[in-house]
Design goal:
It contains 15 helices and 10 strands. By secondary structure, the protein is an alpha/beta fold. α1 packs antiparallel against α3, α2 packs across α3 and α8 runs parallel beside α9. The longest helix has 30 residues. The chain is elongated and about 105 Å long. The two termini are 41 Å apart.
Length: 340
């Protein structure tokens, strides 16, 4: 539609320019008189001629009337369609969205708003974290608009689209496009733009997982494989699965699993879990510790010393986790951000 509008306006301007030039050449009029005659002729106003017309000028005027009225009508109809069909408001909304995204930092980017990407978006929305969704499908973008999400209609494999989503300022990228090859391309492009970006990718087959990791993905998820394992666990250990559903439900449930990252200089650095009195003073449980070297200490003993760079996997209510973060960290909003 935008191209049609540009074309219509170009035709209109071309007729004005050519008509003006014709009067200047055939009738030897100055620029203002020639332009005035062209405009009133195209508009069908019916004013008298600026100067007496020669036979050549009369023929030229008839040509301007035929072509000018057609060009003017085409331009008016096109502009009207552009306004009525909402294209103009869409452009304004797109500009407002650009400004909204430009003000984001530390946000999450979701590439692909299909079945998996929509669930990711719903979870981010429930957790009240800032995020941007990218999709080429108009219907998918419309769903994002209805939910009030930040959106970009474009190809996530394009570097320009990722930059528009603020990938260089983002905290994470979820590559949830339908094809494995497309997700690999998104991962490669995003990793080149932001080396420290945390990337989670969706794979449709287990064989694609290794390729995505080698492309730069930090985590790779195969929904079909995870779904099958979950169904088997639900059959064999239904109460365990129910409990995990509760603690992984985020702010919609009483308890949740979270991670708190310790930085250099934080109060808990250099002391044991027992000396920190975590359970007695905060009510939260430390289930595991991921060390800076990626080693995992599951069910750490009370004598375990916590160090800078450790990520504590903890269980508790939001109030308990916030209390733990206030005691464990110099700045609780750094190790346990609001609206995670």
């Amino acid at each position: 539609m935008v191209r049609r509008l540009i074309y219509a306006l170009s035709v209109f301007v071309a007729v004005v320019v050519i008509g003006t030039a014709g009067y200047m050449v055939l009738a030897h009029w100055n620029l203002l008189d020639a332009l005035y005659m062209t405009v009133i002729t195209m508009g069908g106003v019916g004013y008298r001629e600026v100067h007496p017309l020669t036979q050549g000028g009369q023929l030229w005027t008839m040509l301007v009337i035929v072509s000018g009225v057609g060009a003017l009508g085409f331009a008016v109809i096109t502009v009207t369609d552009f306004m009525v069909e909402g294209h103009f408001s869409g452009i304004l909304e797109g500009r407002r969205m650009d400004k909204r995204i430009a003000g984001m930092s530390g946000h999450h980017v979701v590439a692909g708003l299909g079945r998996v990407g929509s669930v990711v978006g719903d979870e981010f929305d429930a957790q009240k974290v800032p995020f941007v969704v990218i999709d080429t499908d108009e219907a998918a973008v419309a769903r994002a608009q209805e939910r009030g999400w930040a959106w970009i209609r474009g190809d996530a494999t394009e570097e320009s689209t990722l930059k528009e989503a603020g990938i260089e300022r983002a905290r994470s990228l979820t590559a949830a496009l339908d094809g494995d090859a497309a997700n690999v391309f998104v991962i490669l492009t995003a990793r080149g733009l932001s080396p420290d970006l945390f990337i989670v990718a969706r794979a449709t087959t287990p064989s694609a997982e290794d390729k995505m990791r080698r492309s730069g993905a930090d985590r790779v998820i195969t929904p079909t494989e995870i779904g099958g394992r979950r169904m088997a666990s639900m059959v064999m250990r239904p109460r365990v699965v129910d409990f995990l559903d509760v603690v992984s439900g985020g702010q919609r449930t009483e308890f949740k699993l979270e991670e708190i990252t310790l930085g250099a200089g934080d109060p808990y650095v250099g002391i044991t879990i027992a000396d920190a009195h975590i359970r007695s003073q905060t009510g939260a449980y430390v289930l595991a510790i991921h060390a800076a070297d990626d080693s995992v200490n599951s069910n750490p003993a009370s004598e375990t010393v916590m160090r800078a760079g450790d990520r504590l996997v903890v269980l508790g209510s939001d109030e308990q986790l916030r209390a733990l973060a206030n005691r464990a960290c110099t700045d609780a909003n750094v190790c346990y951000p609001q609206g995670r």
